[in-house]
Write a structure and sequence with these properties.
The protein is of the alpha/beta class and 182 residues long. It has helices spanning 12-24, 35-44, 61-71, 86-94, 107-135, 145-154, 157-169, and strands spanning 4-8, 28-32, 49-53, 55-56, 59-60, 76-81, 99-102. It has 2 domains: 4-129, Rossmann fold; 140-169, no CATH class. It has a 5-stranded parallel sheet, with helices on both faces. Strands 4-5 form a two-stranded antiparallel sheet. Helix 6 packs across helix 7.
Length: 182
């Protein structure tokens, strides 16, 4: 299934150019010219990424960022603006934006950012699923994974051997205490 990207920009030329570029790159695209229509589009269809203009006719792109993240915390958002400032970029990042890009932007750079944002979303979802599987022993586990998960939980078998090798590599010695991960 192709990822869906929501483009929110009140400038039709920019929205259309992004739509065409992203369609040609193999993505499904929904467009909106303001905050209200963006939220309607998101109700109609699940999207993986939002490309949001900072200044919209009915509000602020940072406010839309908060609304989008409240609706779907895993949605990645790239903020676009022709009025860039370091303060706004920092604020956008603190509120959960994946990136803050100044207009006009290079389409190849935008495609690279889109790819990185979608990859981050995929990795976060994969990590969450793996944590869920490890913490919930009754969760559905793929054939062959049950023994490895059991060994990892009880500290024996392959899981123990791999952990010991990792500690030896890190200079802690086999059977030593692992450092807490940040």
């Amino acid at each position: 299934m192709k990822p869906c990207i929501l483009v929110v920009d009140d400038e039709p030329i920019i929205a259309d150019n992004l739509r065409l570029t992203l369609n040609n790159a193999g993505y499904e695209v929904e467009t909106a010219g303001n905050m209200v229509s963006a939220m309607v589009r998101l109700e109609e269809r699940e999207c993986s990424l939002g490309l949001v203009d900072l200044i919209l006719p009915d509000g602020d792109g940072l406010h839309l960022l908060r609304l989008l993240k409240a609706k779907d915390p895993s949605l990645e958002v790239i903020i676009m603006t022709g009025h860039s400032s370091i303060a706004k970029a920092v604020e956008a990042t603190k509120q959960g934006a994946f990136y803050f890009v100044a207009k006009p932007f290079n389409t190849d750079e935008m495609l690279m950012l889109v790819g990185k944002a979608l990859e981050r979303r995929r990795l976060v979802a994969e990590t969450s699923e793996l944590r869920r599987r490890l913490l919930c022993p009754d969760a559905r586990v793929l054939p062959g994974d049950q023994a490895r998960l059991r060994d990892a939980r009880i500290g024996g078998g392959i899981g123990r051997q791999r952990a010991d090798r990792g500690r030896e590599r890190d200079g802690q010695g086999a059977g030593g205490q692992c450092r807490p991960q940040p």
